[in-house]
């Protein structure tokens, strides 16, 4: 996992390399200052030598300035490297997610992906900055201080060494115990983000059903789960500071007591004792900083693993070595197709599907809820791969095509219509980024969207809010149909995408399709019989199998399911999921 992350440093390698060197240079200057201070006290103050004080004082000032500049440079380059790593990580994760098939995306919740791109990457950013700065600074400072202390007096310096060993062991067990809770905490952020996302996206439904209190309770529960886990982790880490303070004060007392005796016995000078006390604080404070680095690393370990899950996930769908780049026509064939979302143990969603659809045909697809209508059309543009059998478009297996080339010739208006923040023109040009204003307007005429667009004060420059919240369901559907038409596809799939428009508008749209795009194969999923009554042929699906396939007249005469629904709806009954007479 670490190797995967380090690949994302990229153009920030230089900043990552120079940061530790600046920190090391700062440490050398800091370590040198107490040594100079001892010289000032012993050879300057005690000896009354002002010239020595000025001389050594100037060297101390220069060392302090150089150390300060080195620290500032280390901080600057460390921030640049860590922020750059975070930027590259987010870009790589986002770009990698774009390559996922629907089955890959199904493994991760939307909230989980958002948490990985935000909270988890931020944790890694902070940890990387601390590694570049503190992981070099703290150990180097400790080692330099220990060496200088042993140079001054090896006997007294042994106290530091014992303290460091004891503290190191105790901190190891504290951090190891706390890491377990941090691993549990970050997945809980997924639940928290899911609660926020669901509440905000469905705020109108929440208010319509007066469910604010219940949603608040759900959010509080998710927030409380994170709180409890972090409290447990902090209960372990809280021992860090008392242990450190106890050790520091113990060392100071021992050094002061033993050092005072040694000064009386002329085995140690006052300046050397002052230097040893300074090195004592230096060593133990750096050990505390090092412990905080390990705490941050333990927190980021879970984040690194979660980010790695995204970056190492490979798409189930891949282009062949020599892909076909052109789709000849809109003909479609299903040959003994079986499909399951879970290839290992899942129950087949589609079973032994055999179909031959000619280019330019209008095919209606009807069936009860859960009959796998959407699953069937998803296989045409290779949003999923079949479990068994093959799907052919333009006479070739969809697996032989370049996926981008195939999907550019298959326009899909999904069941859940999505519009993006931007003007109507900008949303329409998702279908064709080079479309002229005239082409956009023509597509809207075919989709019967022009009539409501012209009522907006700004017309086609009207700004669409995120998710299309400022347009109605029917208006959203018609804009999505117009967007699909701008691709000028060989195959057009409408997945129940006229359910929110009135029957008169539905009829106008179907008429426009018949007259304006006769060579485009049209697959229309619908619950209303009227939406598919003009189709060349109709597929009747039941529990993932074809129950009937033929012209409306043939099905009315021979297919019991179609006949019951037809009679139910034409006599003023319900939709496809309701049986006649019920």
Q: What does it look like?
A:
This protein has 582 residues and is an alpha/beta fold. Helices cover 62% and strands 10% of the residues. The chain has helices at residues 2-6, 13-45, 50-98, 102-105, 110-152, 154-201, 203-208, 212-237, 240-264, 270-311, 373-378, 403-408, 424-428, 437-446, 450-453, 473-485, 503-516, 529-532, 552-558, 560-570; strands at 332-339, 350-357, 362-367, 388-393, 396-397, 410-413, 422-423, 463-464, 491-495, 521-525, 537-542, 545-550. The strands form three sheets. A six-stranded mixed β-sheet has the order 6-9-10-3-11-12. A four-stranded antiparallel β-sheet has the order 2-1-4-5, with no helix packed on it. Strands 7-8 form a two-stranded antiparallel sheet. A hairpin with a 2-residue loop joins strand 11 and strand 12 (545-550). Helix 5 (110-152) packs antiparallel against helix 6 (154-201), helix 6 runs parallel beside helix 10 (270-311) and helix 19 crosses helix 20 (560-570). The protein is elongated. The protein starts with a helix and ends in a 12-residue tail after the last helix. The model is unreliable at 576-582 (pLDDT under 50).
Quick take:
The protein is of the alpha/beta class and about 575 residues long. The chain is built from 20 helices and 12 strands. The C terminus is likely disordered.
């Amino acid at each position: 996992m670490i190797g995967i992350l380090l690949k994302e440093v990229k153009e920030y390698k230089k900043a990552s390399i120079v940061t530790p060197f600046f920190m090391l240079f700062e440490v050398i200057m800091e370590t040198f200052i107490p040594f100079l201070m001892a010289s000032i006290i012993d050879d300057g103050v005690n000896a009354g030598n002002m010239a020595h004080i000025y001389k050594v004082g100037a060297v101390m000032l220069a060392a302090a300035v150089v150390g300060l500049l080195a620290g500032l440079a280390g901080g600057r380059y460390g921030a640049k490297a860590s922020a750059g790593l975070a930027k590259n990580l987010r870009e790589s994760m986002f770009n990698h997610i774009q390559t996922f098939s629907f089955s890959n995306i199904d493994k991760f919740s939307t909230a989980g992906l958002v948490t990985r791109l935000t909270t988890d990457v931020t944790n890694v950013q902070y940890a990387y900055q601390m590694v570049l700065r503190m992981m070099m600074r703290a150990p180097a400072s400790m080692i330099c201080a220990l060496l200088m202390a042993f140079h001054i007096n090896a006997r007294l310096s042994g106290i530091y060494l014992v303290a460091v060993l004891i503290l190191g062991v105790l901190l190891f067990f504290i951090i190891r115990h706390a890491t377990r809770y941090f691993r549990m905490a970050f997945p809980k952020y997924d639940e928290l983000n899911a609660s926020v996302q669901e509440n905000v996206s469905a705020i109108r439904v929440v208010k319509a059903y007066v469910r604010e209190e219940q949603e608040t309770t759900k959010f509080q529960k998710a927030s409380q789960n994170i709180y409890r886990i972090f409290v447990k982790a902090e209960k372990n880490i809280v021992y860090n500071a008392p242990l450190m303070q106890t050790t520091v004060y113990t060392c100071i007392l021992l050094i002061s007591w033993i050092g005072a005796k040694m000064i009386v016995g002329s085995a140690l000078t006052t300046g050397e004792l002052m230097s040893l006390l300074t090195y004592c604080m230096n060593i133990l404070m750096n050990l505390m900083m090092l412990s905080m680095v390990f705490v941050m690393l333990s927190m980021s370990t879970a984040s690194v693993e979660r980010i790695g899950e995204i970056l190492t996930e490979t798409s189930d769908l891949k282009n062949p070595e020599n892909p076909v780049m052109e789709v000849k026509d809109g003909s479609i064939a299903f040959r003994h197709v079986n499909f399951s979302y879970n290839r290992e143990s899942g129950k087949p969603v589609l079973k032994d599907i055999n179909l031959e659809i000619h280019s330019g045909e209008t095919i209606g697809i009807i069936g009860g809820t859960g009959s796998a209508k959407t699953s069937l059309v998803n296989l045409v543009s290779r949003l999923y791969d079949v479990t068994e059998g093959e799907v052919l478009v333009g006479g070739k297996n969809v697996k032989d095509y370049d996926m981008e080339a195939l999907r550019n010739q298959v326009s899909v208006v999904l069941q859940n219509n999505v519009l993006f923040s931007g003007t109507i023109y900008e949303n329409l040009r998702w279908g064709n980024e080079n479309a002229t204003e005239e082409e956009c307007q023509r597509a809207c005429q075919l989709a019967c969207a022009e009539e409501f667009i012209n009522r907006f004060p700004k017309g086609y420059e009207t700004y669409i809010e995120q998710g299309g919240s400022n347009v109605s369901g029917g208006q959203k559907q018609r804009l999505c149909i117009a967007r699909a038409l701008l691709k000028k596809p060989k195959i057009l799939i409408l997945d129940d995408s006229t359910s929110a428009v009135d029957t008169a508008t539905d009829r106008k749209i179907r008429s426009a399709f018949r007259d304006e795009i006769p060579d485009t194969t049209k697959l229309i999923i619908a619950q209303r019989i009227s939406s598919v009554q003009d189709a060349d042929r109709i597929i009747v699906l039941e529990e993932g199998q074809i129950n009937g396939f033929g012209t409306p007249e043939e099905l009315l005469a021979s297919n019991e399911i179609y006949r019951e629904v037809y009679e139910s709806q034409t006599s003023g009954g319900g939709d496809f999921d309701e049986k006649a007479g019920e």
